[in-house]
């Protein structure tokens, strides 16, 4: 089991150091860890935010654990040399087409949610967002009309093949959860959504143990805050997923607690190749202070164990240890406590 760790910038190295300790503590057979440079640090050391040797390391691994990239001292560099290009480049080069973001409210953290506690307590969902298609990647442009108005356009499209692979991934994820998929589209007005919906229905036939329902995106946005308990796995396109996943994250609270996975098609000896990272950035405002909450990075390790290494029991163990630490009152500064980064790492490891 080869894991490439890319700590990156700002608090990235601080939180991934704790995540690495957790991974090492699990005593996985034949675990090999190696580290590579990404982001601003990679630019300074190698002249590029995603050096060729880092990319090679990712390709040679079974999974990547990513910290965060972003460095204010690189603000004046041309766009292609900015630290953020490292994550975009990795997603493109590694064919990572699915973004998974779990949203779960840990016991006792209801006060962090923007929702009423009795509603917040119901949240336990996984948003599966398609990453490589949709309106972000279609033909686009700006033209001047005869009357002098400017007009912008972006073409939205999904092919059956693109929908099929993300839908299959969502159904497989639902099999390991509560067995329900909600497909979100806008099939009442968009042809793209009609193809999306037809294809998801076709894929559902191969997963008789999973129930499927469909929801228009406007209604989904409403139900997410009205009745979040109705969702288990939500599968949707790039644009709708971008919006709904951010909405779901404020429903559960701190940015320091949320993990994500980006999965591709490559199957390894152990599972699906993927890249795992906290959803937060490099947090330059607190970098180097030892205040960063490493729980999101640690929960990214749990996702890595589940999806790329086929180690569900270890994944659950890590998640339970984080939940226990929170229940015991271990709180970072981001959630009203005073525990530091290493202290939180210690607390989770003690409870593994
Ligand atoms: P951010 O997520 O880095 O920080 C937002 C706020 O949340 C800050 O006040 C920060 O101190 C706090 N915060 C974030 N993570 C935390 C943690 N683990 N524990 C405690 N507090 C935490 O977002 P921001 O400030 O918009 O971006 C900073 C840099 O990160 C930028 O260069 C941005 O481009 C980059 N970024 C990189 C991402 C990635 O690597 N995938 C994702 C998002 C932003
Ligand atoms: Mg977003």
UniProtKB/TrEMBL annotation:
Location in the cell: Cytoplasm
Cofactor(s) for this UniProt protein: Mg(2+); Mn(2+)
Gene Ontology annotations of biological process type: L-leucine biosynthetic process
UniProt keyword Iron-sulfur present: no
Known catalytic reactions: (2R,3S)-3-isopropylmalate + NAD(+) = 4-methyl-2-oxopentanoate + CO2 + NADH
PANTHER family: 3-ISOPROPYLMALATE DEHYDROGENASE
Protein name: 3-isopropylmalate dehydrogenase
Phylogenetic placement of the source organism: Bacteria, Pseudomonadati, Pseudomonadota, Alphaproteobacteria, Sphingomonadales
């Amino acid at each position: 089991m080869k894991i490439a760790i890319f700590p990156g910038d700002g608090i990235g190295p601080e939180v991934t150091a704790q995540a690495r300790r957790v991974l090492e503590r699990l005593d996985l057979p034949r675990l090999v860890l190696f580290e590579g440079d990404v982001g601003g640090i990679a630019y300074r050391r190698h002249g590029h935010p995603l050096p060729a040797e880092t990319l090679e390391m990712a390709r040679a691994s079974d999974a990547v654990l990513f910290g965060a990239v972003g460095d204010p001292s690189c603000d004046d560099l041309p766009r292609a040399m900015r630290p953020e290009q490292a994550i975009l480049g990795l997603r493109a080069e590694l064919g990572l087409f699915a973004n998974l973001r779990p949203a779960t409210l840990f016991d006792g953290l209801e006060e962090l949610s923007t929702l009423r506690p009795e509603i917040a307590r119901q949240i336990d969902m996984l948003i599966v967002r398609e990453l490589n298609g949709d309106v972000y990647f279609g033909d686009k442009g700006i033209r001047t009309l005869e009357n002098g108005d400017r007009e912008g356009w972006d073409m939205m499209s999904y092919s059956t093949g693109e929908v099929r692979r993300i839908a299959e991934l969502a159904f497989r994820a639902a099999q390991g959860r509560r067995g329900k998929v909600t497909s979100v589209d806008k099939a009442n007005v968009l042809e793209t959504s009609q193809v999306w919906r037809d294809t998801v229905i076709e894929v559902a036939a191969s997963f008789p143990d999973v129930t499927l329902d469909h929801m228009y995106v406007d209604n989904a946005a409403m139900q997410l805050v009205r009745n979040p308990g109705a969702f288990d796995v939500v599968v949707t396109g790039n644009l709708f997923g971008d919006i709904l996943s951010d909405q779901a994250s404020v429903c559960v609270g701190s940015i320091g607690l949320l993990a994500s996975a980006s999965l591709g098609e490559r199957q390894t000896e152990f599972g699906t190749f993927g890249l795992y990272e906290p959803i937060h950035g490099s947090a330059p405002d607190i970098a180097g202070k030892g205040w960063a909450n490493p729980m999101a990075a640690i929960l990214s390790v749990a996702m890595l164990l589940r999806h790329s290494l086929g180690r569900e029991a270890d994944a659950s163990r890590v998640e339970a240890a984080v939940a226990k630490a929170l229940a015991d009152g271990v709180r970072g500064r981001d959630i009203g406590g005073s525990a530091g980064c290493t202290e939180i790492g210690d607390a989770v490891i003690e409870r593994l």
